[in-house]
Amino acid sequence: MAKFLGLDCSTQSITAVILDSSKKTVVYEKSLNFGKALPQYNCPDGFLLHPDPLVKHSNPLMWANALDLICKTMQDDGVNLAEIAGISGSGQQHGTVYLNKDFLREDWLLKAKSLAGAVKPLLTRATSPIWMDSSTFADCRRIDAALGGPEQVRLRSGSSATERFAGPQISRFAREDAKAYADTAVIQLVSSFMASLLIGASAPIDYGDGAGMNLLNLSTLQWDADLLAATAPQLGEKLPLLVPSSHIVGEIHPYFHRYGFREGVPIVAWSGDNPNSLIGVGGWKPGTAVISLGTSDTFFAAMDRVATDPDGYGHVFGNPAGGFMSLICFKNGSLAREQVRKQYDLSWQEFDSCAFELTQPGNAGNIMLPYFTPEITPLVLNSGPVFEGNSMFKAQKDAAAAVRALVEAQAMTMRLHSAWQQQKTKKVRVTGGASRSDGVCQVLADVFDASVERLQVSDSGAQGAAMRAAQGAGAMDWATLSRIFCACDASKTRKPIPANIAIYNELINRYAALEKSITG
Ligand SMILES: Nc1ncnc2c1ncn2[C@@H]1O[C@H](COP(=O)(O)OP(=O)(O)O)[C@@H](O)[C@H]1O
Ligand SMILES: O=C(CO)[C@@H](O)[C@H](O)COP(=O)(O)O
């Protein structure tokens, strides 16, 4: 058997990709949007509405329900799931799920009618904070201080204490609801929670996603005792084991036989969506930077040596192929693009092409700081977008200029805040929803002075997970997997245009000064 299933439980959707390693092709791909497929959870954009814009939670029962639904969808689509030889997956990073001691029993999935029904009585916290949550500023400062400053936290864990990371989120929960925290026996990431559902037991956390918690010591690859102590009481007892990403965490639970899976299918550790995307676009070894234009915009790359960001915005995570990867995350990604598109009543086609045809690189001096929601890179807690330029632009009456200003700002902020890696980017692979846009890809090519390559696959997180299933359960190597599954569509590559490179080399200084005037 040579079919491997990769699942991706990201912010807004769950996706399945099946690879056939003997036919050397992707044989199935399907995505279900949470807002559309599971409207009963009231998460149209993947999260629950909250009066405080800094608080962003989701419903873990929605993710459990989504796993049932994607399995049922594959079965209804005629996929013979008995042919699947291994499964792995991706979870949106940093989100946490809080479970009671019954989660450690062996029988919680045995007689279940549905995954959501089985999980409901196990939750000690009804909702899960996700990566978009920025409500833990005080906890971050407390953790930094306890360790002797942000630099100490960064040197140990790869990141300064960061609002969306699991550690500060756990700290806030333990402070605000000590009783529910005490009742919590296990704290899982979205990735290891989903793996737990597949095996019907508490699954370990892999180094890739585990590094996004401010709790894992990158030198020892173990939980860091000082970070645990600074975060919350008895935390070490509540965290799962840590394992390399290629570890097989268990076999598929008999619950899943109803969908046609055979007995004993190995489940390879799940990881974060970004670590898996690194694999899914063929970026497993240093040399290629990756830009993911999903709900968040992220910039990441396999690292040839570990460096950390002195400004505290960049992160170091585990590379599922071994070693480490850098990552910088921008909250104002697709939802900001959608906001501009809706504000000016544009279709995606108008957003992608017309807007770029009607304006020139540099946007006639019109420039924007794209803080439609509070931003994490750089940290901006209270702002709206900032407009500088001509009166039509500032009055928000010029749709094409607004689109270009947003996309140019998003590209320039990525270049500015990835400079700490000191790895010259000659080639960028783009993935995620907005990578379909030619205009967006051309701006990235010009701002980074790099070729921007696009892959045939649309969900690199799910594809990377399927490739990891083939590596962990099918003993395939990364070079072979990347050669087969990560071919670029050369006709869609965007090359940098020399005149535009010069324009952006100038403009980026103005952008940096404007950013500094807001962030200090
Ligand atoms: N043609 C397009 N141009 C730009 N953005 C697009 C286009 N089509 C879809 N998108 C954006 O892609 C987003 C979904 O991207 P995706 O990578 O699937 O997100 P995630 O993995 O975070 O759930 C949508 O929210 C939408 O804003
Ligand atoms: O916070 C981060 C990375 O640090 C985000 O990239 C999340 O991992 C969410 O991913 P998407 O759902 O936007 O792909």
UniProtKB/TrEMBL annotation:
Keywords: Kinase, Transferase. InterPro entries: ATPase_NBD (IPR043129), Carb_kinase_FGGY (IPR000577), D-XK_euk (IPR042024), FGGY_C (IPR018485), FGGY_N (IPR018484). GO terms for biological process: D-xylose metabolic process; xylulose metabolic process. Signal peptide: none annotated. One of its GO terms (molecular function) is D-xylulokinase activity. One of its GO terms (cellular component) is cytosol. Gene3D superfamilies: 3.30.420.40. Residues 130-280 form the Carbohydrate kinase FGGY N-terminal domain. Its EC number is 2.7.1.17. Residues 289-470 form the Carbohydrate kinase FGGY C-terminal domain. It comes from the Bacteria. Belongs to the FGGY kinase family. This is Xylulokinase. It comes from Oligosphaera ethanolica.
